[in-house]
Amino acid sequence: MKNKLSINSFIKKLFGKNYPYINKGLKLFKNRFKFNLSKKISSQKIVARESGFILDFTRNNYLTFHLRPKNFHDFHLESTCTIEDKMGIVIQGPIKENFDFLKNTLKIYEKIFKNSLIVISTWESEDINKIKNLINDRVHVIFNREPQKSLSNIDHQTLSTSAGLDYLQKKKVKYVLKLRADVRLNKNNLESFLTTLIKFFPILKKNETISSRIIVPSINTYKYRLYSLTDIVMFGEISDLINYFDKEPYKIGIKKFNLQKDSILINDTPLVAEIFLCARYLQKVERDLKWDLDNWWISLKNYFCIIDSSSLDLLWLKYEWDYEFKYTRTYSHKFARALDFQDWFSLYNSSKDNWNKASSIHEKYDEKMEIKNLY
């Protein structure tokens, strides 16, 4: 404290009446640099260690940041929950350069998913001997033969997911969390949280085709893009996910939508990966889809549950992964494209949020898959 006072006294004497301006500049300069990223805040460190630093030269915005451990030995969160029913996790898709990421993810899941069996469902073209080293009492690996290329690799996703689900069904698992290999959840006690959501929000419209809601995060779940339910992370009863990820090839499934020749658009909505999967699922449930906003919103209310990506502490190591709220936040438009839990809960309770006043027209695309009317 004395040293700090002496330095301030020296600066005051040096700059005299100009001291307030100099001091303000020094504070501004100091705030541009973040060196101690592992300091204690409210008696706890956010991360155990970080030797790097951050430079912040933003002028028109407040920049906040968040750190997540890369490696499992720096991750100390643990789960304490227990659940009554058996739960499994399917991690599907290519691994390739994300092997170290996945290896650390599995070690982290040993701490936060203590009640779950884990299946990695990937391809024969991967480094099999390397990936086999990930196998243990709770981790099983399936190497699938790759299907032919399909739009948005839909057949790759359905085949690899289905293989993992089939394995867990034989293990008499009731609930499944489906993830991509480049996704990591960092929140503890998610097993009890997700299973409680299923029980707390039963489906409003009884249907013989489904057992309960499918829960997804807000990232890539869009309010004004028809049937755009994210397929990055999904949670539900295993029977519902088996139904959702039907192994029927895309080229066969697409024919059932009675498309115009050489087009994959219905009411200017492209039948790409997540839209195709959601629309196909709802077609089994509802038989006749309306392809308008009202039907999409009613489907969200009746059959799904949207939660905030932050409630899972979700990291998706793809695209602009370092933007914490990519796709889910905006301050430059009148509304965000993504749905979050607040939006969904208002929909569930029939609150008068009047989404149609923001836009009564859904997002429309051309044959090049470019959006024509993003507001």
Topology:
Blueprint: H1 2-15, H2 19-32, E1 33-34, E2 40-41, E3 44-45, E4 54-55, E5 87-92, H3 99-112, E6 116-123, H4 128-132, E7 139-144, H5 154-170, E8 175-180, E9 183-185, H6 190-200, E10 214-217, E11 233-237, H7 238-244, H8 250-253, E12 265-266, E13 269-270, H9 273-286, H10 293-303, E14 304-307, E15 314-316, H11 341-348, H12 355-358
Parallel strand pairs: 5-6, 5-8, 6-7, 10-14
Antiparallel strand pairs: 1-4, 2-3, 8-11, 9-15, 12-13
Mean pLDDT: 90
CA radius of gyration is 24 Å
Give the ordered list of helices and strands: HHEEEEEHEHEHEEHEEHHEEHHEEHH
Category by helix and strand content: alpha/beta
Share of helix, binned = 25-40%
CATH architecture of the largest domain: Alpha-Beta Complex
**Main sheet attributes: strand count, strand direction, barrel closure:** 5 strands, mixed
End-to-end Cα distance, whole Å, is 54 Å
SS elements, strand count: 15
Strand content: 15-25%
Strand order of the largest sheet: 7-6-5-8-11
* Overall structural domain count: 2
DSSP summary: helix tally:
12
